[in-house]
């Protein structure tokens, strides 16, 4: 750095410890109160070494005997913090720990403190200890407005942190600042984008709530967790392996300072891996009425992964993670396996015996195929709740068994009635089927929706609407409706309801479902696949 002025014309601050002779210009720089006493004309030290007391101290010039006065100003504050490597330990009476802590692992400040702090620390440390005081420096970018302009009061584009946190929450703001750009780059701060973080935390909140609701319903606890983990299904292994990879990546990203990549990885895990995929696939398992090992193994997996996720999330979203740790993890965990706070937890590790990479690859492939099927569905206008008739996949001999174990993943995620696995394409009739080529694997999709399946689709949609109506009226889950009346202009929907009348009644807890010849009073109009349908519920 070029030379720069280290004094400031200020009142507060560390006074320059320099006295100059008013006659011969001789200068002394003192380094202790003892030295002040020795040089002071009165032989006394000030009661406080700051201004104004220090200014009253006059020295006698050792060279010519005239009065010496202190240089009137103070040192730049970054000179004070520029000796933090030594001064901060003295300040808290921990000086004896200097050798243990020095040089320090990590320091950070914004880019405008390059000379002010990073450099001052460096040169004072070289002078005092002949060593560099820090191992890693994170030099942060600035927060600008959403157009990349500097925030300033006169421009009126300032976002005040406390006000913003009050409105949008501290965790969403923190996640946003972490994920938006690399810590060393400037951020174009767009308040609207913070809402996306809130949305993702809502997804996490709902996922934990989902787990808690069903665990409680089935009186699940970690007492049986070891046993439950022996009955894992393919998607559980996939989920645990995804967690394992996510933790490894986050560890790696944090170590390299790529906090934005770490945060994005974490958010993606919450949205895609946990919510979109895993919870979708296990829903039918937790809906089982009877006591079943595959239900309990889903709870064990959920508990294990969610607890690990909450711990990993702690530094990124400290408030919600602490809440979930107290309300969810501690609710089920054994007493000796939890700590007072999530913030004194360590990064979780996954037991080796739960890591099955082969199965993870297989389930990942099935998800990839399923995504292709969802794309085909949207291309042909076939909604996800309409079950497709059949998918055939051709894999190699070795993996055939694995795929068969995991096939439910695809049946549920892509909503396919039947999935057949073959180890060779020989003798298989694929005419009329749509091919999906993943290079290492081929799939064939039958997109004909036969009348039965179509009707099932209509009926599922109707059930969903009725459940919405129940919800709007705040009916308890076990409340039995007296009657559901349905009127529709569509012949197909009419047929579907007639055929699945009992199913609708059972799913929506109604004594009877009737098809009526005209629009019932108090009915609500719905578009079921673009056909007007009217539904009325009677309590
Ligand atoms: Zn003098």
TrEMBL record:
<dbReference type="Pfam" id="PF00133">
    <property type="entry name" value="tRNA-synt_1"/>
</dbReference>
<dbReference type="InterPro" id="IPR014729">
    <property type="entry name" value="Rossmann-like_a/b/a_fold"/>
</dbReference>
<dbReference type="InterPro" id="IPR002300">
    <property type="entry name" value="aa-tRNA-synth_Ia"/>
</dbReference>
<dbReference type="GO" id="GO:0004822">
    <property type="term" value="F:isoleucine-tRNA ligase activity"/>
</dbReference>
<keyword id="KW-0648">Protein biosynthesis</keyword>
<dbReference type="GO" id="GO:0000049">
    <property type="term" value="F:tRNA binding"/>
</dbReference>
<dbReference type="InterPro" id="IPR009080">
    <property type="entry name" value="tRNAsynth_Ia_anticodon-bd"/>
</dbReference>
<dbReference type="Pfam" id="PF19302">
    <property type="entry name" value="DUF5915"/>
</dbReference>
<dbReference type="InterPro" id="IPR033709">
    <property type="entry name" value="Anticodon_Ile_ABEc"/>
</dbReference>
<keyword id="KW-0067">ATP-binding</keyword>
<protein>
    <submittedName>
        <fullName>Isoleucine--tRNA ligase</fullName>
    </submittedName>
</protein>
<dbReference type="InterPro" id="IPR013155">
    <property type="entry name" value="M/V/L/I-tRNA-synth_anticd-bd"/>
</dbReference>
<feature type="domain" description="Methionyl/Valyl/Leucyl/Isoleucyl-tRNA synthetase anticodon-binding">
    <location>
        <begin position="236"/>
        <end position="389"/>
    </location>
</feature>
<keyword id="KW-0436">Ligase</keyword>
<dbReference type="InterPro" id="IPR023586">
    <property type="entry name" value="Ile-tRNA-ligase_type2"/>
</dbReference>
<feature type="domain" description="Aminoacyl-tRNA synthetase class Ia">
    <location>
        <begin position="2"/>
        <end position="188"/>
    </location>
</feature>
<dbReference type="Pfam" id="PF08264">
    <property type="entry name" value="Anticodon_1"/>
</dbReference>
<keyword id="KW-0030">Aminoacyl-tRNA synthetase</keyword>
<dbReference type="GO" id="GO:0005524">
    <property type="term" value="F:ATP binding"/>
</dbReference>
<dbReference type="GO" id="GO:0006428">
    <property type="term" value="P:isoleucyl-tRNA aminoacylation"/>
</dbReference>
<keyword id="KW-0547">Nucleotide-binding</keyword>
């Amino acid at each position: 750095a070029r030379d720069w002025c280290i004094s400031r014309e200020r009142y507060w601050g560390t006074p320059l410890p320099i006295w100059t002779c008013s006659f011969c210009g001789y200068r002394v720089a003192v380094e202790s109160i003892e030295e002040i006493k020795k040089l002071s004309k009165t032989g006394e030290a000030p009661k406080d070494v700051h201004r104004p007391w220090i200014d009253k101290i006059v020295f006698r010039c050792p060279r010519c005997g005239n009065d010496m006065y202190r240089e009137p100003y103070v040192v730049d504050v970054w000179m004070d913090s520029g000796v933090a490597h030594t001064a901060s330990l003295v300040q808290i009476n921990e000086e004896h720990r200097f050798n243990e802590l020095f040089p320090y692992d990590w320091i950070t400040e914004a880019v405008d403190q390059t000379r002010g702090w990073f450099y001052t620390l460096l040169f004072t440390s070289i002078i005092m200890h002949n060593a560099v005081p820090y191992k890693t420096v994170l030099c942060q970018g600035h927060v600008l407005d959403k157009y990349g302009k500097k925030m300033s009061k006169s421009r009126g584009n300032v976002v005040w942190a406390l006000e913003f946190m009050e409105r949008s929450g501290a965790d969403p703001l923190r996640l946003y600042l972490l994920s938006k750009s690399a810590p060393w780059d400037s951020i174009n701060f767009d308040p609207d984008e913070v809402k996306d973080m809130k949305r993702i935390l809502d997804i996490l909140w709902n996922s934990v709530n989902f787990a808690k609701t069903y665990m409680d319903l089935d009186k699940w606890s970690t007492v049986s967790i070891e046993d439950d983990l022996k009955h894992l299904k393919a998607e559980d292994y996939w989920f645990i392996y995804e967690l394992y990879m996510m933790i490894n990546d986050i560890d790696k990203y944090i170590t390299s300072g790529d906090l934005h990549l770490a945060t994005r990885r974490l958010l993606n895990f919450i949205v895609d891996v946990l919510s979109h995929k895993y919870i979708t696939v296990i829903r039918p398992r937790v809906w089982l009425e009877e006591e079943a090992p595959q239900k309990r193994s889903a709870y064990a997996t959920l508990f294990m992964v969610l607890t690990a996720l909450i711990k990993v999330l702690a530094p990124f979203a400290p408030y919600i993670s602490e809440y979930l740790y107290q309300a969810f993890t501690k609710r089920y965990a054994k007493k000796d396996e939890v700590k007072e706070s999530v913030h004194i937890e360590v990064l979780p590790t996954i037991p080796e015996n739960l890591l099955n990479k082969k199965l993870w690859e297989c389930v990942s492939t099935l998800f990839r195929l399923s995504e292709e099927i969802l794309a085909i569905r949207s291309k042909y206008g076939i909604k996800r709740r309409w079950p497709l008739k059949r998918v055939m996949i051709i894999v190699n001999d070795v993996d055939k068994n694995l795929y068969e174990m995991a096939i439910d993943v695809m049946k549920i995620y892509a909503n396919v009635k039947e999935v057949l696995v073959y180890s060779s394409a020989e003798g298989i009739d694929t005419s009329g089927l749509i091919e999906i080529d993943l290079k290492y694997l081929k799939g064939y999709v039958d997109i004909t929706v036969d009348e039965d399946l179509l009707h099932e689709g209509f009926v599922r949609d109707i059930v969903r609407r009725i459940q919405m109506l129940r919800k709007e009226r705040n009916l308890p889950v076990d409340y039995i409706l007296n009657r559901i009346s349905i009127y529709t202009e569509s012949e197909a929907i009419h047929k579907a309801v007639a055929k699945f009348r009992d199913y609708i009644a059972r799913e929506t807890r109604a004594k009877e479902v009737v098809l009526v010849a005209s629009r019932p009073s108090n009915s609500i109009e719905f578009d079921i696949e673009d056909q007007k349908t009217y539904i009325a519920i009677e309590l």
